[in-house]
Amino acid sequence: MSQPYTTTIQDEITLPGFAGAVHLPGESGYDELRRSLNPSVDARPALVAEAYGVADVRAALLAARAHGVPFAVQATGHGTHAACDGGVLVKTSPMASVLVDPVRRIARVGPGARWAEVLAAAAPFGLAPLSGSAPSVGVTGYTLGGGLGWLARKHGFAADSVVRAEVLLADGRHVTASAGSHPELFWALRGGGGGFGVVTSLEFRLHPVSRVYAGFAYFPIEAAAGTLEAYRKWIDDAPDEISTAIVLKRMPADAPAPLGGRHVMMLKVLHTGEAAEGRRLLAPLWRAAGPALLDETRQTTYADASMGGTPNRHMDMFDTVTGEVADILVRAAGQAQTVEIRHWGGAIGRPGPDAGPVSHRSTKLSVIVDTPVPGLAQALRPYANGGTFLNFLSDPSRTTAAYTATDYGRLRNVKRAYDPEGFFRIGHVVPA
Ligand SMILES: Cc1cc2nc3c(=O)[nH]c(=O)nc-3n(C[C@H](O)[C@H](O)[C@H](O)COP(=O)(O)OP(=O)(O)OC[C@H]3O[C@@H](n4cnc5c(N)ncnc54)[C@H](O)[C@@H]3O)c2cc1C
């Protein structure tokens, strides 16, 4: 590795002590590394600093402070919804270490690790992290935003399983946040997003999950109304071991027969048990849906269960689900590419006494729509609980809606204590 040196960028921003790779506009790597998955974000940082270790992150942070320019951190760009224009963008992807302690059932990861790497490291021990639908998502960004995965009904949000984080604070101090060390910071990190410091290492519990029954079954769209009616009642008695979503979707033309170009209803399922039991639990829904066009549900391993996601243009959350809501969604499906109706509940709604700020835990169902549908938001508003979930939110002006008023107030207090000048201000951040 190269020795620390002083890099002078455009005669403006210098990074004393930074030993990683620096990418300037026009240089190779700059465009690739600054990229966000959100197409409306076209960030133009003054430089992208690829950090190889904590010392690099610290050097980049102190340089941004010294020069009074914006600072942001990014692992994958999957959740970057605001641009760090003219500033220092630290890319943590080289810091992707993953260590699994199978005895304590704990994983410790670097800030650049993605879920795929944790899944692979934990699976040989019959353990699983509380990952989400896409293995390419970064562990740290996902977990700081709460982390709603397909094991959440059984084991809670990913944030609920965090036991410790190493954090680089706005003033350059490197601290440990845990139940016994900086407990308020530790509370805020478990769902409060990335605005409190740069997390340089995260430790979280793994869970004994290996064999699952999971996948998708496809039905004609005409089954949607009847199945949603059955779903509204079915979710009340579903055990924590089973997680489901109903997705109304226009399949791409090149999807395999008989799905190509067809408007379908998908049933998504992940059951932490045997296929026969999963099928028994699903029977009432399957009866309402009728014969499947294609059934791709199967017994598999958690690491191999690929659950897919839905790009989010509109999201609402519901504590109770009436027939009116189901009707609105079936109508909306006529104008949307994808409408996903997902069951929450279970362990999500039973947080421990010291759980972090992930709010709206009484949510029973969430709805995500990937296409603007005129009038949909207004039609759903009277029935929705008004909340949102940080990880599924792209508009940073709505961050407040992810929290209860009490938790938001507490988050602001933590921000004032740890970042009083609001140095971390890009993306979903709570203001000081
Ligand atoms: C295909 C896809 C599927 C998804 N599925 C789910 C899902 O099933 N469940 C779910 O809950 N979410 C899901 N998400 C949302 C995802 O969790 C968020 O977008 C998350 O922010 C992504 O984190 P990242 O590190 O990959 O992204 P990045 O864009 O690299 O980072 C996003 C933000 O996280 C913060 N951050 C990242 N690293 C650090 C750090 N080291 N210290 C401090 N802050 C940091 C920063 O605020 C940054 O702006 C999905 C997203 C996509 C694109």
Quick take:
The chain is of the alpha+beta class. The protein has helices spanning 30-33, 54-67, 115-122, 139-144, 152-155, 183-189, 224-237, 275-289, 323-333, 376-380, 405-418, and strands at residues 5-9, 13-18, 21-23, 47-50, 71-74, 88-91, 98-101, 106-109, 162-168, 174-178, 198-205, 211-220, 242-250, 263-271, 294-295, 298-301, 314-318, 338-343, 365-369.
What does this structure look like?
This protein has 432 residues and is an alpha+beta fold. It has three domains: 5-91, Uridine Diphospho-n-acetylenolpyruvylglucosamine Reductase, domain 2, CATH 3.30.43.10; 98-208 and 404-418, Uridine Diphospho-n-acetylenolpyruvylglucosamine Reductase, domain 3 (2-Layer Sandwich); 211-395, Vanillyl-alcohol Oxidase, Chain A, domain 3 (3-Layer(aba) Sandwich). The chain is 24% helix and 24% strand. The protein is built from eleven helices and 19 strands. The chain has helices spanning 30-33, 54-67, 115-122, 139-144, 152-155, 183-189, 224-237, 275-289, 323-333, 376-380, 405-418; strands spanning 5-9, 13-18, 21-23, 47-50, 71-74, 88-91, 98-101, 106-109, 162-168, 174-178, 198-205, 211-220, 242-250, 263-271, 294-295, 298-301, 314-318, 338-343, 365-369. Strands 12, 13, 14, 15, 16, 17, 18 and 19 form an eight-stranded antiparallel β-sheet that branches. A hairpin with a 4-residue loop joins strand 7 and strand 8 (106-109). Bound molecules: flavin-adenine dinucleotide. Flavin-adenine dinucleotide binds next to strand 5, helix 4 and strand 11.
